[in-house]
């Protein structure tokens, strides 16, 4: 009975450190990847690539969470939102966490081997970004930019996996997703701002200060403009732009949520971005279906 209970506790700890029990980060990584796949294919992508990238996004997002917890294990106990993480409570050891990270990266490597040479080469960039992001908050107020690059790197990978080449227009989608990521992760960082100031961790929410809402709004406008540019370059139709319009509507709602900088409302605004990404994806799929 003790063995069963111990195994269950360890499983729960692994679910916690890989965030498989909290899928919002997975959604925010998955939607832009699917945008890219559908744009690359100009319709339905190859089924094996849909499976590879859905699984790959899942394992690499979890790997990123694990390396983040390893890097922050001495900080997390001082932050209200993170003080119950497994490396803080002792539910997992550092050795077990490192083993989990290596296992997840190995699975991701095996998956990418079923694509092509260019996509395999690009995957090393994804790994480098995933590893360096958690350490950036110690040295710069712009860790969200590194996170944005990490969350956007699957875009050129998905495109090359489908087409075998890199199109310059796909980098506009990369930039759109990067600015979107900085916007929603700044709202997320507003939740932890008071704790981060106490322990000396940097973020865009701290850098922007009282201009935080304005900067998020500007980043959201830039995101919409860049996505409109993507639609123009890929010759998308009106359904694509309806998807962007729905995203714009959600951005207005998010500005309402963060107006008083209340922690719970800022977190709610962050979570709302899942729907923004999904609406853009639905717009791309519907537009591809009728064009």
Automatic annotation (TrEMBL):
Keywords: Cell inner membrane, Cell membrane, Magnesium, Membrane, Transferase, Transmembrane, Transmembrane helix, Ubiquinone biosynthesis. It is found in: Cell inner membrane; Membrane. Pathway: Cofactor biosynthesis; ubiquinone biosynthesis. The chain crosses the membrane at residues 24-41, 47-71, 92-114, 120-136, 168-191, 212-232, 238-258, 270-290. Gene3D superfamilies: UbiA prenyltransferase. It is an enzyme of class 2 (transferase). Its EC number is 2.5.1.39. It comes from the Bacteria. Its cofactor is Mg(2+). One of its GO terms (molecular function) is 4-hydroxybenzoate polyprenyltransferase activity. It catalyses: all-trans-octaprenyl diphosphate + 4-hydroxybenzoate = 4-hydroxy-3-(all-trans-octaprenyl)benzoate + diphosphate. Catalyzes the prenylation of para-hydroxybenzoate (PHB) with an all-trans polyprenyl group. Mediates the second step in the final reaction sequence of ubiquinone-8 (UQ-8) biosynthesis, which is the condensation of the polyisoprenoid side chain with PHB, generating the first membrane-bound Q intermediate 3-octaprenyl-4-hydroxybenzoate. Belongs to the UbiA prenyltransferase family. This is 4-hydroxybenzoate octaprenyltransferase. It comes from Spartinivicinus poritis. The lineage of its organism: Bacteria, Pseudomonadati, Pseudomonadota, Gammaproteobacteria, Oceanospirillales.
